[in-house]
Amino acid sequence: MSEDRKKQFELEVEKDEELRKVKEFSLNGWPICKGKMDKELKKYWMIRNEITVYDGVLFYNDRFIVPKRLRQEMLKLMHEPHMGIEKTKKRGRKIMYWHGMSLDIERWVTNCLVCQKYATSKPKEPLLVHDYPELPWEKIGVDIMEWKGRSRYYGMERR
């Protein structure tokens, strides 16, 4: 993270009331009981032991926690290569976190005009109807698969 981006995160954490409280709890200790917390902070209860503060920036394990005002910008950066929903989620989960990030990524990618324009529509393959054999072992199916980069053929068809 660049020094400018770090300062931006520090400032936004201080402006974000929710994350400012999370930062205070992380530094000074969390309440003993989840019930004594504000409603919006309860979502951090399960991960409270993994939240740390380093140079004014909040981290969840090794991922930085993104303040609300920077989330749109982070979504834009994550989705810059237009890799689709799952790859964008995977890319984002490596370095950042916020509650509801997966849903925000899904919405962002679904509404992306570039992705909509170039989305590959996979046509459904027609169901192949086979005639029933008259005798046992008259017809044998074949399964084709790839394993460790090599094609394998199992079974054979005989008539």
List the helices and strands and how they pair.
Elements: H1 3-15, H2 17-28, E1 51-54, E2 57-60, E3 63-65, H3 71-78, H4 85-95, E4 96-97, H5 101-110, H6 113-118, E5 143-147, E6 150-154
Parallel strand pairs: 3-4
Antiparallel strand pairs: 1-2, 2-3, 5-6
Helix pairs in contact: 4-5
What does this 3D model show about the protein?
The protein has one domain: Endonuclease III, domain 1. Helices cover 38% and strands 14% of the residues. The chain contains six helices and six strands, in the order H-H-E-E-E-H-H-E-H-H-E-E. The longest helix has 13 residues, at 3-15. The radius of gyration is 25 Å and the shape is elongated. The termini are far apart. It comes from Popillia japonica.
Features of this protein?
159 residues; alpha+beta; Endonuclease III, domain 1; 4-stranded mixed sheet; two-stranded antiparallel ribbon; 6 helices; 38% helix; 14% strand; elongated
Amount of helix: 25-40%
Q: Helix count?
A: 6
In this structure, how is the largest beta sheet organized? Answer: 4 strands, mixed
CATH hierarchy: architecture = Orthogonal Bundle
CATH topology: Endonuclease III, domain 1
The tally of domains stands at 1
Q: Over all CA atoms, what is the radius of gyration?
A: 25 Å
Mean pLDDT figure: 86
What is the name of the CATH class?
Mainly Alpha
Instruction: Extract low-pLDDT stretches.
Output: 154-159
Number of strands: 6
- The termini sit apart by 66 Å
Shape: elongated
Question: What is the percentage of strand-forming residues?
Answer: 5-15%
Summing up helix and strand content along with how strands pair, one would put the structural category as: alpha+beta
The side-by-side strand order for the widest beta sheet comes to: 1-2-3-4
GO molecular function, one term: RNA-directed DNA polymerase activity
Protein name: RNA-directed DNA polymerase
InterPro entries: Integrase_H2C2 (IPR041588), Retrovirus_Pol_polyprotein (IPR050951)
EC number: 2.7.7.49
